[in-house]
Amino acid sequence: MQRAKVLFERSLSALTPFLAVLLALAVGAIMLFALKVDPITAYGALIEGAFGSPFALAQVLVKATPLLLVGLGICIAFRGGVINIGGEGQIIVGALATAAFTLALPQAPAIVLLVGGMLCGMLAGGIWGGIAGALKARFGVNEILTTIMMNAIAAQLANFLLRGPMIDPIEVKNGTMLAQSARLPELSWLPKLVPQTLLHAGAIVAVIMAVVVYILLWRTVLGYRIRAVGLNAEAARFAGIRVPVYQALALLLSGVMAGLAGSVEVLGVSHRMMDGVSGGYGFSGIVAALFGKLHPLGAIPASALFGSLLVGADKMQRAVQVPSALIDALNGLVVLFVVSSDILVRRRAQRRKAAERKS
Amino acid sequence: MKLNRIGAGALLAVGLLLAACGTPTPAPAAPAATAKPAAKQVKVAVVMPSASNDGAFSQSMYDALKAVQASMGGEAAMKIAVSEGMVQVPNAVAAIRDYAQQGYDLVIAHGTQYGNSLTEIAKDFPNTAFAWGTATDTFAAAGVKNVFAYNPRAQEGGYVLGVLAAKMSKSGVIGVCGPVEAGDAKTYVDGFKKGVMDTKKDAKINVTYTGSFSDVSLMAAAAETHTKAGADILTGSSQSVVGAIGVAKDKKAIWFGTQANQTSLAPDTVGASQVYDWTGVIKEMLDLSAKGTKGGKAFELSLQSGGLKIVYNDKVSIPADAKAAADAAIKGIIDGTIKPLP
Questions:
Q1: Cβ of B90 and A37 within 8 Å?
Q2: How much of chain B is in helix, strand and coil states, percent to nearest 5?
Q3: What pLDDT is attached to residue A1?
Q4: Tell me: the pLDDT tens digits for B49-61?
Q5: Strands B204-209 and B233-236, how do they pair?
Q6: Which residue of B has its CA nearest to A277?
Q7: Which of A42, A282, B80, B135 could bridge across to A88 with cysteines, CB 3.0–4.6 Å?
Q8: A110 and A230, same domain (yes or no)
Q9: Is residue B20 assigned to a domain?
Q10: Hey, which residues 289-308 in chain A have their CB within 8 Å of chain B?
Q11: pLDDT in the model for residue A353
């Protein structure tokens, strides 16, 4: 009886994000009704847009790649008991560093450009996350505030570099002055997995990183300590773990992952650094991580699912001609419902444990 | 457990923040595409960075497409598909590809930022006609044959509105709210400045650039600064000017618009607008495409071709001498005696 109950609770907990998405889509259906659009046609287009063709599937994986990488960072941070809302900024600095590195070495062999480019992105993201980590460890500054503030600094840094020192010389010559870097040397591009689509080898990198993060968190001393700090900082302190250090490390590693997401975006998709490269992945990666129950391996299908929602929603706009604001609202609803459902599940678990303690 | 609760609370806060941030300019419901496919229905798709009712860049194209559709006989003759709010280039690329795959006759990439990706897509769909603007390059040098380019000579209308502004300003101070110093925003501002200076040498023009095409609040702040500095006439370019027009309305200044007719945004404030009328360009592209020419031609909107129009607002009184000076400027630009750019 007890086992059946536990099994039921577990499956409920795993299914909750999916139920939350369905509820969000149900609320979205009301908005569609208000716009005199048939929700069934609209959601049919959403599904077709995400899964209806090889191109659509490839596009989903293209979206899922940065979501997964950012989501992995969120898993590490959350497991260490800290919150990283600085994904956007970390992606931007990661992308900037990668672009700068590859543009500085146009003649280097592909392996140097690819590996070096990604390492630069990880380093830059790590520094960006690490600053917030150091401020928390040293001065106890709330990391939610610092990571958000670091986003603004990164955006302005990119603004300055892309309109100044890093601007594409062709933009200056033509007078178009678009805020973007020159095109990266072709050797530095991540190889395409499917021709005529945007799907690139970064997707494989992201899956490998998911396994690496899983091993890091569950099979190494560092990971054990990060998790111990996250589960109960007081107990960890009594056990001799230097809590602030591991919290800072969790933020740093989280930044490394988001920085890599930035690298992969410039090396695989845009092939140059440009305005808007972060694309909101820094925020939607949080949702992808929650979808995957903050587990690195769970984040793999979760980011694919969330990626399909993003791609499908764009298709829906094209198919039934709803305003783009509705698509943004729909994505917002999904975020709201998934995050709320997570809190619901946690509360339930708390109540259950309290009840068990009483009995 | 406490930590978890704090974490979950923080994440909820982010969720709420995202939900709040994720809804930019509200757009009205676009008409549902319920056209019955007729035998010779022409299918045109447009991908644009802002909403189709942005009162500026995207709206100018959307309005023109609707006008062409009406002139061709409605939805049965021409189907229009719109992907708006495509700020991120990868999303726009997916949309452009999708339209090409669906067999649209003309796919318009309405944003300078889409150009780099368009070269690659156009090569994959040699039988589809693409259009790209604002731009002057059809990528012919790169071997691409199926891309049209279009560009407005924004400086021409800018010059005319500059003449009007100089004639109508009582304080002699004029504020210009620029977005990014590039493309048609730059040529418009440069033309406007020259129009003012050629008309009133002692006028003071304050020009600011916000560095963003979409930051409405920054544009409003710029307009605020201009009015504080004594400006009684304001102008500006891009989809972000709605904020600045609001300020002009509050401070009882007169606004001159560009890209689309901005009168409806503030009927008592907008004196005149330079309107990009793409109808002629769209018709010609469709004609050429039907005859088998899928690209290779660069179009320019000008006062002479009628692609640029100065539209006055009857509710704001324009002195007769100002209107006469503006008409003279239009004539001068068309016959070449006035050079609108410095």
A1: no
A2: 45, 20, 35
A3: 60
A4: 999 999 899 999 9
A5: unpaired
A6: B88
A7: A282
A8: yes
A9: no
A10: 290
A11: 81
Tell me if chain B has a CB within 8 Å of the CB of A260: no
Q: Which residues of A touch B13 (CB under 8 A)?
A: 144
Could you give the ipTM of this predicted complex? 0.77
Containing A290, the helix (H) or strand (E) segment is: helix A281-291
> Which pLDDT does position B166 carry in this prediction?
96
Q: How many domains does chain B have?
A: 2
Give the domain extent around B158.
Answer: 154-269+316-335
User: Distances from the Cα of B232 to the Cαs of B10, B159, B223, B266, B333, in angstroms?
Assistant: 46, 18, 11, 16, 26
* B308 Cα distance to chain centroid: 12
The reply to whether B227 falls in a domain is: yes
In this structure, the strands spanning B147-152 and B298-301 are parallel
pLDDT at B15 over 50: no
- A200 and A230 assigned to the same domain: yes
Residues A336 and A245 in one domain: no
Say if residue B134 is in the same domain as residue B219: no
Q: Which domain holds residue A356?
A: 323-359
- Does A149 map to a domain? yes
Note whether B84 contacts A317, CB cutoff 8 Å.
yes
Q: What mean pLDDT is reported for chain B?
A: 88
A12-21, B91-100, B192-201, B215-224: which has the minimum mean pLDDT? A12-21
Q: Determine, for residues B27 and A78 on separate chains, whether the beta-carbon distance falls below 8 Å.
A: no
Two tokens at A34? 């208000």
pLDDT value at residue B20: 40
Residue B24: which of A62, A180, A325 has the nearest Cβ? A325
Query: Any CB–CB contact under 8 A between A339 and chain B?
Result: yes
**Per-residue pLDDT for B262 more than 90?**
yes
Is the pLDDT score of B248 beyond 60?
Answer: yes
The pLDDT confidence band at residue B10, using thresholds 50, 70 and 90, is: very low
List chain A residues with pLDDT less than 70.
Answer: 1
Verify that A231 and A295 share a domain, yes or no. yes
Nearest-by-CA chain A residue for B16: A336
**Cα of B316 to nearest chain A Cα, Å:** 32
How far is the alpha carbon of A317 from chain B, nearest alpha carbon, in Å?
7
User: Is residue B190 situated within a structural domain?
Assistant: yes
Residue type, A139: F
Q: How far is it, in rounded angstroms, from Cα A52 to Cα A57?
A: 7
> Residue B39's pLDDT is what?
54
B206 and B87 fall within a common domain: no
A159:B186 CB<8 A: no
**Beta carbons of B83 and A317 less than 8 angstroms apart:** yes
Does B292 lie in the same domain as B203? no
CATH of the domain at B232: 3.40.50.2300
What pLDDT is stored for residue B34 in this prediction?
47
Residues 80..139 of A with a Cβ closer than 8 Å to B: which? 81, 83, 85
Residues A336 and A271 in one domain: no
**Phi, psi torsion values for B271, nearest 5 degrees:** -75, -45
Which among B18, B96, B190 is the top mutation candidate for probing chain A, defined by the most A β-carbons within 10 Å of its own β-carbon?
B18
Same domain? For B262 and B296 the reply is no
Mean pLDDT (whole number) for B131-135: 90
Burial class (CB in 10 A: 0-12, 13-18, 19+), B140: middle
Residue numbers in B near A323 (CB within 8 A): 26-30, 51-52, 84-85
Pick the residue of B11, B16, B75 with the most A CBs within 10 A to test the interface with A by mutation. Answer: B11
